[in-house]
Specification:
This protein is mostly helical. Helices cover 76% and strands 0% of the residues. The chain is globular and about 60 Å long. Pfam families: ABC2_membrane_4.
Length: 244
């Protein structure tokens, strides 16, 4: 049943414009970051680490979370048209499968975005004259960024399922970026999804997460948010009347 729901979500996205956005935003992030790196190589002397600090700042702190918000709003957009929610909720499909299918599709697309971003980062570094090898931390940054991205997706999906407007959940997502940045500055970023993205991807600091305990805390908090938000969204879908 879940597999069929996932297939249905892919079909809905097949002819959408989200694919263009998925390709463009990482490209813009890397172009801006590489431009800053190239113009300031006299100051930015840590080569690949410095390049990551530049491309990661624009990508991980702004473009990636906004892309997640737009993606989740797009995944839920069709249901809000022409009373389609009534059809979905009366179909012989568990509500949990509907939500989880959307989350799985979002996660798969975010995995693609992360891999695409890595390729762009690598190409940008080579074109900037940087020599191999890449920093050993890169896989960890990408994986933790994906984990935090899925957590943010659960939150954005819950908002987009509840709110018919396309723009409002995206606006909330954008505001959450700045709120998360504030919590990061206050050194309590481990307790908000968007701050977790900043920490996990090494956006503002390329230092290692250090002890295994800190990494376990990162994964645990993400998992806790993911479970609570998902269960809350599924419960609401089961108990509340649909506004179509």
């Amino acid at each position: 049943m879940l597999k069929r729901c996932v297939s249905a979500e892919w079909l809905k996205l097949k002819h959408s414009h989200i694919w263009i956005l998925i390709m463009i935003l990482p490209v813009i992030s890397v172009l801006i970051g590489c431009g800053n790196f190239y113009m300031n190589q006299g100051v930015l002397r840590k080569e690949w680490y410095s390049l990551w600090s530049q491309v990661g700042l624009f990508y991980g702190e702004f473009f990636f979370p906004v892309l997640i918000a737009i993606l989740c709003a797009t995944i839920c957009r069709l249901e809000h048209f022409n009373k389609n929610w009534n059809l979905v909720m009366t179909a012989p499909v568990p509500v949990s499968a509907v939500y989880l299918a959307k989350l799985i599709v979002a996660g798969i697309l975010l995995l693609f975005v992360q891999l695409f971003f890595f390729v762009l980062y690598f190409i940008g570094g080579i074109l900037s004259g940087l020599a191999l090898p890449l920093p050993a931390e890169v896989p960890g940054w990408l994986i933790r960024g994906l984990i935090a991205g899925v957590t943010i997706s659960s939150l954005q999906l819950a908002l987009s399922l509840k709110i018919r407007s396309f723009a409002i959940p995206v606006g909330i997502g954008l505001c959450s970026v700045f709120f998360g940045l504030g919590l990061y500055v206050l050194k309590i970023g481990m307790f908000f999804p968007h701050s977790l993205l900043t920490i996990g991807m090494g956006v503002l600091s390329q230092e290692s997460m250090g002890s295994s305990g800190r990494q376990l805390l990162f994964i645990s908090v993400n998992l806790l948010y993911l479970i609570i938000i998902s269960l809350g969204a599924i419960h609401r879908m089961k108990k509340e009347d649909v506004t179509a």
